Structures are given as structure tokens and as C-alpha cells.
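Hello,

Our lab assistant flagged a job as stuck in the queue for most of the afternoon. It eventually completed. Since we weren't sure the result was trustworthy after the delay, we are filing this so someone can double-check. Below is the sequence as submitted and the structure that was eventually returned. Let us know if re-running is recommended.
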Amino acid sequence: MSVVANEVKGNILIVDDEPENLKLLSLLLIENGYKVRAAKTGKEALSSIQFSLPDLALLDIKLPDLSGFDVCKNIKSDDSTKELPVLFLSALKESNDIVYGFEVGAQDYITKPFNIKEVLARVNTHVQLYLLRKELEAKAIELKIANDKLEKEIAISQQVELMRQKNNEIAELNAAKDKFFSIIAHDLRGPFVGFLGLTSMFQNPEISIEEMKHYGELLNKSANNLFKLLENLLTWARMQRGAVEFNPQIYKLSEVVKQNEVVLND
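-- returned structure --
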């Protein structure tokens, strides 16, 4: 349990079947700022712990039902209570008993008759360590939650940035497409105007055979130019779909320039 507004240092469970010991220890701990509850048997102690976890258990070894060792084993075998600090407070002074007390999981062992200052010092030390550990665990959970939240926010931010980049790429592609269509429209307009003009010449009833031949050649050139422009447009469309195979060819730039000069002059 947490310390409440610096008034209660901790919640202590005292387990002892001797009423005088319970009374003495309870008064001692209450006077020093602790909240105290008592149990006279091992089963009663385990039931009390399951109902509400204390911050420390002062446990006698000789109890009318279960031994203090068995109670401690039970506490330490349960994941929900295994971190609870247990201090044995017993008249058993043999080294074997003391060593066994630590083996079953106790944090400390105080022999009877006990020294009041020693009991208070050890209780205070273990309670503070336990509460500090719980506080650190709570902070660790908070940090993990905050870290998970931050990671999610970063992931969302990265997705938003990726979407923004994709939108910019799409906008650039659309702009390039619009520019390309504008160029195509401009380039098609010139040959079409000439093409239409030449076709109108054939409507003249006085046109000679030589003139018809000449205009026919011009119409053929104009049609070829239009066809090349359309071919370029189709090639660009295939490039946008990724359907163009890489097929490099060798060109002489001088010939390409001459061909363009002829087209321009025409």
C-alpha cells in the first residue's frame, strides 16, 4: 500500500498467537506511525493477506495451525504476494532455524525477547525498501506506457510524412502530365492547321496535276509528323504504366538535328 500524506508509514500485519505480543507490537508500531492489523493463526494470516496486501508481515514461527515457515512458503509461492517482505519474530534462536527462515524467503529474522529500537529500525528499513520498489515499478510502468505512446505518435507522424511525400509526388506527376499534354496539344495544333489547309487546296477545281502532286507530298509529310507525335504520346503513356522495355539504340545526333531542321522548315 502507499503511504498516505506522510501520516501512515506503512501497513503492517502481525501474526502471533500470544495476545500480549500482539498488543505490545501493535501499540509500538501504531505510536510510530504505522497502520496495524493482527492475525493469530497461519490460515488467518494468509486470508488477511489475500484480502488486502500489507507492506510487511511480522511473523511468529510457532502458530497453532500452520508454522510460520509454511506461511512464508505460501506467501513466496504466490506471484501476487511473493514480493511482500516477511520478518520472522520468534523465540527460536538456533542457527538452523534462522538459516531456514531465510531459505524459505524471509527478508529478516528477529529473536525474542526483542529490542524495541531494533524492531522499529528493521521494520522501517524493509517497509521503505518495499514501498520504494513499488514506486519504482509504478514509474517503470508509466514510462513504458509513455514510451509506447511516443512510439505510436512517431509511427503516426512518419505515416503522415510519408503520405505528404506521396501527395507531393502525385502533384508533381500531375503537373508534369499537364505540361506534357500542353506541349502535345501545341505541337499537334501546328501540323493539324497545315494539314487542314492542304486538304482545302484540293477543293479548288482549277488545281493542276502538278499542284495536286505537290500538295499530296506535303500532306504525306504532315501526316507522318502527326503520326510521330501520336507515337510519342503512346510511348509516354506506356512509360507511365512501366510497360516500356529497355531497348537502347545508337543514333547519330547530326542526323537527328537535320531531320528536325527539315520538319521545322516544312
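-- support follow-up --
The delay was a queue issue, not a problem with the job. The result is valid. Residues 1-5 have pLDDT under 50 and may be disordered. Strands lie at 10-15, 34-39, 56-59, 86-90, 108-111.
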